[in-house]
Design goal:
Elements lengths: L1 H21 L1 H12 L1 H23 L6 H25 L5 H8 L2 H12 L2 E3 L1 H20 L7 H27 L1 H23 L9 H29 L1 H5 L5 H13 L5 H17 L4 E3 L5
Antiparallel strand pairs: 1-2
Helix pairs in contact: 1-10, 1-12, 2-3, 2-10, 2-12, 3-4, 3-9, 3-10, 4-8, 4-9, 5-12, 6-8, 7-13, 8-9, 8-10, 9-10
Length: 297
């Protein structure tokens, strides 16, 4: 009973994280117009590091071990460097709905790396639900006419791969280091390397950016880069990487909804239909058996 409750809490935390992440692309789309990809993609980490340092000092957290540091570098390369920078660059030329569809492949990337890094073996039921969810977003992408790949598309696909590895590694490490500690230390590791490139791309004109741009940037720095990861990694650690990762199938449709609210992008009946299919695939797969290598059911 206690294990079942823990898994349910993990799923809930995962959902909170996904909702927070779903605002990332819309916020990025707004911010990059005024600040540029480098400042938005890397500058958010510098701002987040200030909050993180205060939290680490107040809580008197111990330094990670050498073994944990290696895993943190992987998390940092994906969640702190690769994903923010690549998506910021892509959002300079692509609509949020486009990016949302491609990021829907993230659960499969996460589950695949979970097998390699965390030793999880998803069941056939899990893979069936994953395939159904993936087919739904592929059909959706084809319907919207996003068949031709651009450089920005390749950037998003690269972001999916590197973040999938980061999620799997971070979910595994969170079980021993703590959920928020994983992203906190990853931010600390990366932030010093971002100061120079961000400084070189800062201009005086940015001071005159509208309030919406500044609010979007602060959201990316405080929520998308730190607080959302706290909820997400907690969910991965408590509910299982492969199982909780399926909640990400909701993310593209949440992104599209937020894009409609904040960027006036349209929502069609077909979008709603695809969202329903994806939701049912998540419900079908969230209770699928996931076992560790070497263990028997």
């Amino acid at each position: 009973m206690q294990i079942e409750r823990k898994e349910k809490v993990g799923l809930l935390l995962g959902l909170v994280g996904v909702i927070c992440f779903s605002l990332t692309l819309p916020a990025t789309r707004i911010a990059v117009e005024y600040f540029g990809a480098t400042v938005v993609g890397l500058g958010r980490t510098i701002v987040a590091s200030i909050l993180v340092i205060l939290v680490l000092i107040i809580r008197k957290e111990k330094l990670p071990s050498a073994r944990q540091f290696k895993s943190l570098v992987i998390v940092s390369l994906g969640a702190v460097l690769g994903f923010p920078l690549l998506t910021s660059w892509a959002m300079e030329s692509l609509p949020v709905s486009h990016g949302a569809v491609e990021l829907a492949l993230l659960p499969l990337a996460t589950a695949g790396f979970a097998i390699l890094r965390a030793g999880e073996v998803p069941s056939l039921k899990f893979w069936i639900s994953s395939i159904v969810g993936s087919l739904a977003v592929i059909i959706y992408a084809a319907y919207l006419g996003f068949g031709q790949l651009q450089y920005a598309d390749l950037a998003l696909l690269g972001a999916v791969i590197i973040l999938g590895l980061s999620y799997a590694e971070g979910g595994k490490l969170a079980q021993e280091l703590g959920s928020w500690q994983v992203i906190a230390w990853a931010i600390i590791i990366a932030a010093p390397f971002f100061i120079v490139p961000v400084f070189l791309n800062v201009t005086g004109e940015m001071l005159h950016a509208p309030l919406t741009a500044w609010v979007s940037f602060i959201y990316l720095a405080v929520v998308s880069q730190f607080l959302a990861y706290v909820a997400w990694y907690s969910g991965l650690a408590m509910g299982g990487i492969s199982r909780v990762s399926q909640i990400q199938y909701l993310q593209p449709f949440l992104m599209i909804t937020f894009a409609a609210l904040f960027l006036n992008e349209s929502i069609t009946l077909f979008t709603i239909l695809m969202a329903v299919i994806v939701v049912f695939s998540v419900i079908f797969g969230k209770n699928a058996a996931v076992v560790k290598k070497g263990l028997h059911q």
